[in-house]
UniProtKB/TrEMBL annotation:
It comes from the Bacteria. Keywords: Glycosidase, Hydrolase, Lyase, Manganese, Metal-binding. Homotrimer. GO terms for molecular function: hydrolase activity, acting on glycosyl bonds. Its cofactor is Mn(2+). Substrate binds at residues 88, 108, 142-144. This is Pseudouridine-5'-phosphate glycosidase. Mn(2+) binds at residue 140. InterPro entries: Indigdn_synthA-like, PsuG. The keyword Hydrolase applies. Its EC number is 4.2.1.70. It catalyses: D-ribose 5-phosphate + uracil = psi-UMP + H2O. Pfam families: Indigoidine_A.
Length: 304
C-alpha cells in the first residue's frame, strides 16, 4: 500500500507552540483565495499573521497543498494559496483533495476540522457561512453550521453577511447547540454592518469572560464549537444605503447568472468589492484583522 497522510501536517513553529502550551490561532484560507481580490489577498495573509503575533500568539493559516492538509503555512505556501486557481474545500472535500493530491483553500468548516485535528482551539475568520435566502427551495445551507455543531473550536467572526437569511442561521446555530456570544455588543453583527437586526443570545465584554466561558463550554457544552461575534470597527462600517444597494444587486446578479452551490458566496463577495469602489474591501479587511487580534488575545488568556 502507498503511504498516505492521515492527519494535518503542522508547521514546526506551530507544533512547538502546541507542545509547549503556547497560544495558537488558526486562520482560514478561503477568505484569502476566494473572498479577497489578488494581489491584495497576499498582503492580507501576512497582515493577519502579523496581527496574531503582535498579540503574542502563533498564527497557523490552514490549507491543503499537493494533497497534504497543512496547519501553518510557509511564505511560499501562502503565495500558492493567494495565487489563484485554488479549489474551495469544505469538510466533505478534504478527503477527496487528499486522495487525489490536489490543492485547495479551506472554508470555515474545513479549517475548523483541521484546526481541531491539530489541537488548535482558536480560529479567526471574517464571516460564517449560513442559511441562504431562499433555502426553502434551494436547500443551500452552509456546511459551516454542521461543522461548528460537532467541532470543538472557538470561531471569532463578524457574524454573517446579510446575503444570508440571518434569522434562520441563528435558529440553526441554536438547534446545533452552538453558543453565540456578542463581544461588547447585544446585536448579532451583520459583517459589513455592526447590527444584523437580530440580538445575540449572550453578551461578553472582555477577553477574561470569553476564556472562562470557553473553558466551561468545553466541559459542559456537549462537544460543539462556539461563535464569538465581534462587529466591524465603527469607522469602517459600510453605510446602510450603500449596503442595501450592493446586496440587492448582488442577489439579482446571482439569480440572473444561475450561480449555485459553492460559487454563490464568492460571486456575491466579488460583486460587493467591485461595485462599492473598495468600500466593502476596507470594511472586510478591518473586521478580519480585528477578529485575528481578538482571537489571539483569547488564545493568550487561555494559555495563561
Ligand atoms: N462569508 C464571508 N466571507 C467569506 C466566506 C463566508 O463573509 O469569505 C467564506 C468562508 O470560507 C465560509 C464560506 O466558510 O465562504 C462559506 O461558503 P458556503 O456558503 O459555500 O458554505
Ligand atoms: Mn452553499
Amino acid at each position: 500500500m502507498m503511504p498516505h497522510v492521515t492527519g494535518p501536517v503542522l508547521l514546526p513553529e506551530v507544533r512547538a507552540a502546541l507542545r509547549d502550551g503556547a497560544p495558537v490561532v488558526a486562520l482560514e484560507s478561503t477568505l484569502l483565495a476566494h473572498g479577497l481580490p489578488a494581489p491584495r489577498n497576499r498582503e492580507v495573509a501576512d497582515e493577519l499573521e502579523a496581527v496574531v503575533r503582535s498579540r503574542g500568539a502563533v498564527p497557523a493559516t490552514v490549507a491543503v497543498l499537493d494533497g497534504v492538509p497543512r496547519v501553518g503555512l510557509t511564505a511560499a505556501e501562502l503565495d500558492r494559496v493567494c495565487g489563484g486557481d485554488l479549489v474551495k474545500l469544505s469538510v466533505r472535500d478534504l478527503g477527496v483533495a487528499v486522495g487525489l493530491r490536489r490543492d485547495g483553500a479551506t472554508t470555515v468548516a474545513a479549517t475548523a476540522a483541521l484546526a481541531a485535528a491539530a489541537g488548535v482551539a482558536l480560529f479567526a475568520t471574517g464571516g460564517l457561512g449560513g442559511v441562504h435566502r431562499g433555502a426553502r427551495e434551494s436547500w443551500d445551507v452552509s456546511a459551516d453550521l454542521a461543522a461548528l455543531a460537532r467541532t470543538p473550536v472557538l470561531t471569532v467572526c463578524s457574524g454573517v453577511k446579510s446575503i444570508l437569511d440571518v434569522a434562520a442561521t441563528l435558529e440553526l446555530l441554536e438547534t446545533s447547540s452552538v453558543p453565540v456570544l456578542g463581544f461588547g455588543t447585544d446585536a448579532f453583527p451583520g459583517f459589513y454592518r455592526r447590527d444584523s437586526g437580530f440580538p445575540v443570545p449572550w453578551r461578553v465584554d472582555d477577553v477574561a469572560q470569553v476564556a472562562a466561558v470557553w473553558r466551561a463550554h468545553r466541559d459542559v457544552g456537549g462537544g460543539a464549537g462556539m461563535v464569538l461575534a465581534q462587529p466591524v470597527p465603527a469607522a469602517d462600517e459600510v453605510d446602510a444605503a450603500l449596503h442595501d444597494r450592493l446586496l440587492a444587486e448582488g442577489l439579482a446578479l446571482v439569480a440572473e447568472r444561475g450561480i449555485v452551490g459553492k460559487d454563490v458566496t464568492p460571486a456575491l463577495l466579488a460583486h460587493f468589492h467591485e461595485a462599492s469602489g473598495g468600500v466593502s474591501l476596507t470594511a472586510n479587511l478591518a473586521l478580519v484583522r480585528a477578529n485575528a487580534e481578538l482571537a489571539a488575545q483569547v488564545a493568550v488568556a487561555l494559555a495563561g
